[in-house]
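dude i think i finally got it to work??
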Amino acid sequence: MVRWISGIGILVVAVIAWFMLRPSGSEGPKGPMAGPGAPGMAAPPAVSVIVAAATPFTETMRLTGSIVANESVDVVSEIAGRVVKIGFAEGGRVTKGQLLVKLWDADLQARLAKAERQLRLDEDRLKRVAALKPVDGVSAQDLDVATATAEMRRAEIDELKAQISRTELRAPFSGRVGIRTVSEGAVIAPQTRITTLQDDAGVKVDLSVPERVATIVRPGTTLHVALRGMEGTRRATITAVDPGLRSDTRTLRVRARLADASGVVPGMFADVELTLDAVAKAIMIPSEAVVQDINGATVFLVQDGKAVKTPVELGGRTDTHVRVMHGVKAGDTVITTGLLFVKKNMPVKVRP
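look at this
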């Protein structure tokens, strides 16, 4: 028991002596900001920087379009009938007004011949009645009946000619026809598609632009079009714009005419580049220099050897850079790498 009490006393005396004799400044650094180079202190993070400069910048938007023919139509029959003649070669060129398909019309031709002969008789009777009227050989009513009969016969002939014209399918414009789907002797129904006709002398580009740039596009605007499977780009000029946005997609339909249609096939996909803005002096920084959070976009500038967090307003982009509208000026030093280790007002070391 005496030994145990003596041991406790010695331990208490040793602890008191240690607290009385330890140096007052031995607590050491409390964090990495205590000063560089001190024992146990973290060195400033090394970062890469760029010096912001004003450079020319053209903001563009990439869209997807589709090539369409200048004019395109499905050749269909308005009436049922039997095909007696095909007047075009598959894949060949036709001219406006050329007969493409003829349907059987012998019955209509017979009725037309009958009506024309009857018209001649009606006109002869009208002449006789008209000659007798001045001498009161016929009544005014007889003259009116003869006149109406001749006019009705002419109307009947016009109706038959219209019906016969519907048996003749002619090209509404010059162009190239496609593959036909019927043969001579086939009996077709109304609205049967016989072939397609496209005016390939000029082609158009149809595309849709988002709502935010709808006020920029207008007739006369120039587009740059890259066709998939073909090298280079071609110029196109906007010729028409829909008067309003589509309510389901909030996009505006635009049509442009391609300046060079050589080798272009309707239906091809087109990658379209629309120029939104051209600035002679824009502040461009690498995209990786921007930090996005719930408060918006920020960058870190190096000022007096420290990282200064600065909110920025961004504009257009390229594949690698972004335009800074406000927050960075020419000559500012912007940190581009090492952002994970940088905090507000922290000393930093710029890599050579």
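The CA atoms of residues 149 and 219 lie 56 Å apart.
im so relieved honestly
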